[in-house]
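Hi V.,

You were right to ask for the full record rather than a summary. Here it is.
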Amino acid sequence: MGRFVNPDNSAFQVALNSKIYVDKTGLIAYANSVLDTSDAYICSSRPRRFGKSYAANMLSAYYSRGASSEEMFAGLEISKATDFRTHLNQYDVIHIDIQWFLSNCREASGVVPFIEKSVLNELREIYPDAVSPEVVSLSDGLSLVKEETGQKFVIIIDEWDVLIREEAVSRKVQEEYINFLRSLFKGTEPTKYIQLAYLTGILPIRKEKTQSALNNFDEFTMLGASDLAPYIGFTEDEVRRLADEYHRDFAEVKRWYDGYLLRDCQVYNPRAVVSVMLKGEFKSYWSETASYKALVPLINMNYDGLKNAIIEMLSGASVRVNTATFSNDTRNIQCKDDVLTYMIHLGYLGYDQTQRTAFVPNEEIRQELTMAVESRQWNEMLMFWQESENLLNATLDMDSEAVAAQIEKIHNEYVSVIQYNNENSLSSVLAIAYLSAMPYYFKPVRELPTGRGFADFVYIPKPEYRSDYPALIIELKWNRKAQTAMDQIRERNYPLSILPYTGDILLVAISYDKTGKEHSCLIEQMEK
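Predicted structure:
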């Protein structure tokens, strides 16, 4: 039993000791299914506080010969598997945390030598005949152990990408680190000594030209988590059970912390969910672990359309993004799509794999992004915010003429930038026009099912503002009269869609005459 080779299971025990523990041992079952195959090379990337280290510690506790973990896993999902005991504590495990090594080196250039020296020293104690003092390469040492004893290794690397993400790390050091990983995992020789390789971090493996630097790894990311989707964060069923246990309003939990769409799973940020369950306070817990200030340099990059894309997503819209351009290297960001893709990996945006669109996933992230864009460099944002406030105030005052005039102004001034020149123009403009409603309203629900149709936009005020702000049900008509839209709201009884909401409700009908390029509006208060 050592620090890095065949560690004990104490790190995973900490997770089991926590007030809230959610069983994710199904990940072990997947790992067992690919052991000693060409699919045994896994890179699982996810944002901060999405359980990266927890998963690494769990795998180490299960496989390490330096631990005795049967009692620890008894009663958990993996204990029901037929091969549970077959692989339990049967392998030489090397478990290293790159962040820890970096923190204990004076210079980043010392990380790889420190890793090799530390792990080789422990291997020499276990296999003195195979690993002589002359062996200085970790990959060579592993190969010699396999040759001498037939023993294969499970290698687990936590925060694998920290040297890639750190701007202070030189390109030379990064290349040396990538070469170190290649020596461990690529080629014919590593297939002889690798039983399982599991890398976890925020970024996927860096691309070189069109291929991954370690192209024998299966990538499971926030862009596509495949079979590992249920183990990236908390699933909806898991959060629902926690809400019942801790007597929290599940609808509010979902509104605040849901939104990461991975395959067919709705995924929640585990740290945020645990915090709201234990503390009972609905707020952004994101800033406790990751400062929004890291975003400001990204969104202030002068890439065409970037700032407008951020405004659209803050307003509840989705934005098309080409994720293939990003090389998974923060030094090589070259366009709007690169920034948006990096924000997806960081967890500041959700991603719809089917539609290939990015969006703000939930209220927690919407607050964090709002703080980021309120920097003094966002002059465009400040100007637009004022126009949006004028529109919101006119709507709340039920001033139909002012609303029509303000929407027309926003449409005319911003349409050339956001390029809405089709039949969806009015809907797209409305998506950003009510941006100033963010502090008082939840993210607008678009095309909310009502039983007899779809309301185009529904704004529900946050609980603390419901005495001062009404709900807004907005129906849009393109090249038809505003009265037609109002009649549809009433005939199809759209207000029923937001029951059991009991506050004031404003019905807003807006139309756009494509020929005359004129907007019109009707506003009525719903009778209780």
